[in-house]
Amino acid sequence: MSRLWFVLRLVRVLLHLVVGLWTCAVVFPLADATGRRWRIRKWSAELLAICRVQVSLHNPGNSVAPTRALIVANHVSWLDIFVINSTQTCSFVGKSDIRDWPLLGWLCEKGGTIFIARGRQRDVRRIFQGLVTSIQAGERVAFFPEGTTAAQGTLLPFHANLFEAALDAQVPVQPYALRYLDAQGALHPAADFIGDMTFAQSMIAILQGAPMKAELIQLAPIETGGRHRRELAATAQALIAEALKDPQSEKIDVAA
């Protein structure tokens, strides 16, 4: 029976991807920006529901998210983009190899993901200016400062380059901490998308695994006036590392 349910969920995912492809190809060219954002948010929430990922948004400090900000978060899985998009539609900066993912890569591109090639400084400069323009125009822009996914329980060093966009746009940095939990509140092993794991392998692990809860923790915004991008990156990393500490005192390994 469990295999049958897995097959049914996989078919639902594939059908949902087809709906997304059709929406991007046919509906998006006719829709305004508000309509596109609404459809991205709705489609993301439906994808997570099919994958049995329940999103829970927490705001422990009762902070107010700025209307305009550069959004940053730790990076665990390809699910991260859709978890954040299900709460607020963003344009993401992502690795260029995401574009090669079957179907989903094209959807990410049409959904506003900005792809960057690692180690290519010209790409960074080009994208940086685009980020500043987008933020100043009122768009929500987000990126993952680790630059790649990390296993839950580990936080990689934050790269500071793109934090410069918040300085130039004169907006705060809005950090979020993200983790995936099982029914017992422990870190869910199926969420990890690391090493040589392919997108297909990750999808199978999620669909075969137990349901999970994605906790998205909204942290206090970081003001950028008079600060350096490295200082912003270090502050965001420290806030996210603190938020990811397990309530039962499980220690988070933060790379220096």
TrEMBL record:
<keyword id="KW-0808">Transferase</keyword>
<comment type="pathway">
    <text>Lipid metabolism.</text>
</comment>
<feature type="domain" description="Phospholipid/glycerol acyltransferase">
    <location>
        <begin position="69"/>
        <end position="181"/>
    </location>
</feature>
<keyword id="KW-0444">Lipid biosynthesis</keyword>
<keyword id="KW-0812">Transmembrane</keyword>
<keyword id="KW-0443">Lipid metabolism</keyword>
<dbReference type="InterPro" id="IPR002123">
    <property type="entry name" value="Plipid/glycerol_acylTrfase"/>
</dbReference>
<dbReference type="Pfam" id="PF01553">
    <property type="entry name" value="Acyltransferase"/>
</dbReference>
<keyword id="KW-0472">Membrane</keyword>
<keyword id="KW-1133">Transmembrane helix</keyword>
<keyword id="KW-0012">Acyltransferase</keyword>
<dbReference type="GO" id="GO:0006654">
    <property type="term" value="P:phosphatidic acid biosynthetic process"/>
</dbReference>
<feature type="transmembrane region" description="Helical">
    <location>
        <begin position="6"/>
        <end position="31"/>
    </location>
</feature>
<dbReference type="GO" id="GO:0003841">
    <property type="term" value="F:1-acylglycerol-3-phosphate O-acyltransferase activity"/>
</dbReference>
<protein>
    <submittedName>
        <fullName>1-acyl-sn-glycerol-3-phosphate acyltransferase</fullName>
        <ecNumber>2.3.1.51</ecNumber>
    </submittedName>
</protein>
